[in-house]
C-alpha cells in the first residue's frame, strides 16, 4: 500500500495514509467496533466503482451502464442471504445508522414511539439519543440492564413496553457483552403490537459465523454494520422478510439516500465471500475465546467487568471499584500512549459524564485478525493492568509500549502491503 498515485498528486494525504497504516501495524486496535479488512476488500472499496451512479436496484436503475454494478450488488445480496439465512437483504445503506434510518422511515411516522436501551447501558445514538434525528423525530423511552447483574432486564423491558405502548422495540447494542435472547424481546414486541428491530451492528460477523444467536427469522427487521466483526468494509445492511422488502427498499432509496456507494457495495460482496469460507467461523470463534481470555486476565488483576465476563467480542470494565480515581478518559489516554487503542465508555449506573465516563470498552476483533490467540490476549490484559495501575509512570508506559511493539511484530498486519 504505497499510495503512489496519491503521493504524485497530494503528498500531505499520502503521508497521512502511510502514517495511518504504520499506526495500525504498530499498535493494538482494541476499539470493539473496529477491525482490519483484507487487501481484497481494500482494493474493492478503492476501485473505479466509486465513479458509478446506480440509483435504483439491480435490473431497475435510473442510469445506464449499470451491468457490472448490477453484478456486484447481486453478488453482495446473494452472499448476505446465504450468510444470514435472510429472505430479503438491502446492501445499499451507507452505514449502520442509515440502515436503522431506513427501518424507522419505512415503518414509523414522526411522533411514533421507540423503546430502546439507554445509551449509558450500551445503546446506540441511532436508537433515540436526543442529539440524533431519532431523538428529535420520535418519542423515545429507554430500558436498562439490571444494575446488579449487568444483564438485560427482560422483565423490566416487558413492563415498560406495556406502559409505554411503543411502535417499535429496538434491540442490539454497542457495549453489551452478553448473548441476547431475541425471542424474548420479540415476544415483548408482539404483546404490545410493536415492530422489533434487532440491530446487530457489533455482532454481524459473530451472527454470520453462528457463534452468537441470530435474530434473523425472529425479529421483523435486522440491521447491521459491515465493518465491525464482519470484515466487509465500511457500510450497512438491512434484512427482513419478503413482506417488508418493498417498504425497506424504497426507504433506503429514494427515501433516505441517493446513489449507493457502489465501491463499498463491492467491498461488502468480497467481505461476505470471505465470511462464507470455513476459516471465518474459526476466526469468529477465536474472537470470542480471545475476549473471554482478556476478561479473565483483567478480572485476575482486580478489575470489575460489567456482567462479570463476556459471551461475545468485547469486555466492558467498570473502573469505579478497582480504580475510583481513574476515569475512562484517563485510562484511554494512558493506554493510547502505550500503544493500546480502545475507548472510555459509559457503564450502567454511570456517575460521570459521557465525555469522561467510568469505564473502558475493549474488543478483540482486530487483534484476532492479526493472529492473536488466548495467550496473547491474556498478556494484553496484563499490559492494560500495568498501565492503569501506573497511570502517571512514564517509565512503565514506555516499557509497555515496547511489549506492544513486540506483540505487533509477532503478529504482523498487511505484511505484503
Ligand atoms: C456501530 C453501531 C451502529 C452503526 O454505526 P455506523 O457508524 O453508522 O455504522 C448502529 N447500531 C449499533 C448498536 C452500533 O454499535
Summarize the structure.
46% of the residues lie in helices and 13% in strands. By secondary structure, the protein is α/β, with parallel strands linked by helices. The strands form four sheets. The chain has a seven-stranded mixed sheet, sandwiched between helices. Strands 11-12-15-14 form a four-stranded antiparallel sheet.
Describe the structure.
- Helices cover 46% and strands 13% of the residues.
- By secondary structure, it is of the alpha/beta class.
- It has 2 domains: 43-275, 3-Layer(aba) Sandwich (Aspartate Aminotransferase, domain 2); 278-410, Aspartate Aminotransferase, domain 1.
- The chain has a 7-stranded mixed sheet, with helices on both faces. It has a 4-stranded antiparallel sheet with strand order 11-12-15-14. Strands 1-13 form a two-stranded parallel sheet.
- Strand 2 and strand 3 form a beta hairpin.
- The longest helix has 23 residues, at 278-300.
- Pyridoxal-5'-phosphate (PLP) is lined by residues 33, 95-97, 124, 126, 172-174, 199, 201-202, 225, 236.
